[in-house]
Automatic annotation (TrEMBL):
The organism's taxonomic lineage, starting at the top: Bacteria, Pseudomonadati, Bacteroidota, Cytophagia, Cytophagales
Catalytic activity: (9Z)-hexadecenoyl-[ACP] + malonyl-[ACP] + H(+) = 3-oxo-(11Z)-octadecenoyl-[ACP] + holo-[ACP] + CO2; a fatty acyl-[ACP] + malonyl-[ACP] + H(+) = a 3-oxoacyl-[ACP] + holo-[ACP] + CO2
Enzyme Commission number(s) of this protein: 2.3.1.179
Family: Belongs to the thiolase-like superfamily. Beta-ketoacyl-ACP synthases family.
Residues annotated as signal peptide: none
Pathway: Lipid metabolism; fatty acid biosynthesis
Ketosynthase family 3 (KS3) domain residues: 3-414
Keyword Transferase part of the UniProt annotation: yes
Gene3D superfamilies on file: 3.40.47.10
Keywords (A to Z) from UniProt: Acyltransferase, Fatty acid biosynthesis, Fatty acid metabolism, Lipid biosynthesis, Lipid metabolism, Transferase
GO molecular function, one term: 3-oxoacyl-[acyl-carrier-protein] synthase activity
Pfam family of the protein (one): Ketoacyl-synt_C
Protein's organism: Marivirga arenosa
UniProt name for this protein: 3-oxoacyl-[acyl-carrier-protein] synthase 2
Amino acid sequence: MNLKRVVVTGLGALTPIGNSVEEYWENLAKGTSGAGPITKFDASKFKTQFACEVKNFKAEDYLDRKEARKMDPFTQYGMITAEQAIQDSKLDLSKINLDRAGVIWGSGIGGLKTFQDEVDNFVSNDRNPRFNPFFIPKMISDICAGLISIKYGFRGPNFVTVSACASATNALIDAYNYIRLGKADIFISGGSEASVTEAGIGGFNAMKALSERNDDPSTASRPFDKDRDGFVLGEGGAALILEEYEHAVARGAKIYAEVIGGGMSADAYHMTAPHPEGLGATNVMKYALEDANIDPTEVDYINVHGTSTPLGDLSESQAIKKVFGDHAYNLNISSTKSMTGHLLGAAGAIEALACIFALEKQIVPPTINHFTDDDQFDSKLNFTFNKAQKREVKTVLSNTFGFGGHNTSIVLRKLD
């Protein structure tokens, strides 16, 4: 089958280290930490009292106040980044076939704050069932894709992928597949998450998944460091306009990168722990490279899942060595979660933007907060510790893995 080519023609970002793509990229290059004490609620009773929050954000600065009240923050983030991406793409909606334009979004949890607030209200009012009429549509994960499509009139495929922390990359791969199969011309894709709530922090604390470095939040996310003690919860989102290549060229669009492959796999091992030998991670990277029809030696940079957990970081590094062999030592590897924290279902979207940053600027963003080497890791691997590195970057791979054993990898290339 003659598959279509797929390119990225628009970007939007709302992250813990920047409320626009430009600001996000600037802080990636600087190695800026987005972590700090939680401001959204009193976290003094929690084991973890910090997170990577979106900063200087008021929904009414971006959205109609009345409409914003009908949305959970995760949907607000999605609507805002989608608008940024549409503006960046310079799409003229009056000149495209809206029946062939769709939205595929990713969110691992959806409207967690809405659910928490409504249950709190129910309990505090003597269990009197006075629920907000927007409770259900604000909470459900798919509403973000639905509202984006309503705003722009996109009548093509429309849904949200839910695969825990792999959700946004799943969404991007699905959009890529629809376009290359000739079933659509354009997608708004990406992901958003807003889990910095009492329920989010409390739930992940109960799992012992979060860092508890309350004395120094800015250095708490320490991927591949000997003293890493869990991930830092983040929030925000990112949107990408994926477009069929000829369609983009015909309208004179700026092309940031080409999507050339995607892989998906399952660990089939444990509810929350990664496979100890990195089996799922190994398979998903192999599948992505096979789908891209490239040799492992063609990859220059891997934006790893790298959450700063004891088991996950080790498993992923072992998988990289299995897949790339000796070429693993020629790669730059970095975890931008060291700066942004872990955006759960939105992680793959902002990390795809970090990969495009590497392709655009020929700079690999760093893994910050490295203080102590861990003998479990191969010291010959280049984890791009603490400072961004300039190098030729033509092809990048991004990994995202989720609870339940969900694994996704996507491959992007600088357009010739």
